[in-house]
Amino acid sequence: NAGVTQTPKFQVLKTGQSMTLQCAQDMNHNSMYWYRQDPGMGLRLIYYSASEGTTDKGEVPNGYNVSRLNKREFSLRLESAAPSQTSVYFCATVQRPQGSYEQYFGPGTRLTVT
Amino acid sequence: AQSVSQHNHHVILSEAASLELGCNYSYGGTVNLFWYVQYPGQHLQLLLKYFSGDPLVKGIKGFEAEFIKSKFSFNLRKPSVQWSDTAEYFCAVNSLNSGGYQKVTFGTGTKLQVIP
Questions:
Q1: Which residue has the higher pLDDT, A97 or A50?
Q2: pLDDT digit string, tens, across residues B1-49
Q3: Cys bridge to B91: A67, B5, B23, B49, which one at CB 3.0-4.6 A?
Q4: Which residues contact B109 (CB under 8 A, 6 or more apart)?
Q5: Distance, C-alpha A6 to centroid of its chain
Q6: CA-CA distance, A36 to B112, in Å (whole number)?
Q7: Are residues B43 and A41, on separate chains, in Cβ contact within 8 Å?
Q8: B8, exposed or middle or buried, with CB in 10 Å at 0-12, 13-18, 19+?
Q9: CA atoms of B29 and B12, how far apart (whole Å)
Q10: Contact B42/A42, CB-based, under 8 Å?
Q11: C-beta atoms surrounding A63 within 10 Å
C-alpha cells in the first residue's frame, strides 16, 4: 500500500519548457489536491479535484493546468515554466464525505526553473 | 475569508523545554482543525486533529492541542521536547462549502529547532 506517490522527485527546467507532474494514490480517496510550498508562505492550493471528472482552481492556479485522469491519478502541467514556479509541489488526497477529512500527502516534487 | 495565523515563525528550544506554538484562525462557521508536521526533507504528516467533543486533543509523539472557540485558537503543546521534534509545524483549518468541497487553509508554518 504505497499511499500517495509523486513523480519525479526532482526536476530542473529552463524557462519556457513544459512538464507534467504525476500523482497517484491507492487509497480509493475521492478528492485530490495540488499544493506548492514556498518558504514563509506555507502551502498554497493550486488546483483540486473533488471527485473523478471534476477539477477546480485553488488559490494560485495561473500558469498551471490539471487533469484528473481517473480516480487514482491527478496530474499537474506547467505549459511554459517560469522562475516564479520554482517550488516544492505536493499532491494530497482526502476521503470525503465519509472519513476524517485529514489530508494524506505525497513525498513532493522539488522543481527548479532556471 | 478563511485564514490561519501562526505567530511564531522560528522557535529554538533546548531539549526537555516545554513547547507551545500559537495558531489562530478566522472563520465564522464550523471548522475542523489540524496540526501537521514536516520533518526535514519529508512530506507533511498529521500530528492531531479536532472535529468536535473534548477541546483538548492528544496526538502522536506526546503532542496535544487545545481548541478555544472563544479565542479562535488551536495552540499546539508538548511538555518536554526532544531533538527529534526538530521540524516545521503547520496549523490548518478546513470547512465545507455548499458544494461539499473541503476548503483547507494552511498557516505559514513554524520552524522548531531543538538543541541537544
A1: A50
A2: 778 999 889 999 999 999 999 999 987 777 889 999 999 988 899 999 9
A3: B23
A4: A40, A42, B6, B9, B38, B88, B89, B90
A5: 9
A6: 21
A7: no
A8: middle
A9: 34
A10: no
A11: 14
**Cell numbers placing B73:** 485558537
Mean pLDDT across A57-74: 94
Q: Which residue of B has its CA nearest to A51?
A: B101
The type of residue at A17 is Q
The residue among B1, B2, B4, B26 whose CA lies nearest residue B76 is B4
Per the document, the length of chain B is 116
Task: Give the model confidence (pLDDT) of B65-81 as tens digits.
Answer: 999 999 999 999 999 99
Which of B4, B43, B52, B97 has the highest number of chain A CBs within 10 A, making it the mutation to test binding with A? B43
**Which string of DSSP letters, residue by residue, matches B39-88?**
-TTS--EEEEEE-SS-SEEE-GGG-EEEEEGGGTEEEEEESS--GGG-EE
Please count the residues of chain A: 114
